[in-house]
């Protein structure tokens, strides 16, 4: 990667910033979209973004719609609270109507070019 290109975490954050309010995506969708690494690496990147209020990490869930990253927030219920504040219903640590609320980064279409550096 060239020095003037964004790093892996920067790419993850750029994609996650685009997840619309009231929608969710998955670690795997982000990883596939940027074509670098695996879903676990996206999780690691998001674990490092605490304090970055412009990165809505709470909108990223596992492939089943489960809040698998909830323990990495300030409290065990904060991820759910943030989602519910956006109108996303959560029951038993899982997004209700996950298939309907799911957003894939490919919806960015040609707009992604602006984030590639």
Q: How does this structure look, described?
A:
With 117 residues, the protein is mainly alpha-helical. The protein contains 5 helices and 4 strands. The strands form 2 sheets. The protein has a two-stranded parallel ribbon with strand order 1-2. A two-stranded antiparallel ribbon has the order 3-4. Strand 3 and strand 4 form a beta hairpin. Helix 2 (27-34) packs across helix 3. The termini are close together. The mean pLDDT is 89.
Strand numbers in spatial order across the main sheet: 1-2
Number of domains: 1
Radius of gyration (CA) equals 14 Å
Helix content: 25-40%
Count of distinct strands: 4
What is the CATH superfamily?
Answer: Winged helix-like DNA-binding domain superfamily/Winged helix DNA-binding domain
Overall geometry? globular
Category by helix and strand content: mainly alpha
Report the mean per-residue pLDDT as an integer: 89
Task: Name the CATH class.
Answer: Mainly Alpha
For this structure, the CATH topology is Arc Repressor Mutant, subunit A
In CATH, the architecture is Orthogonal Bundle
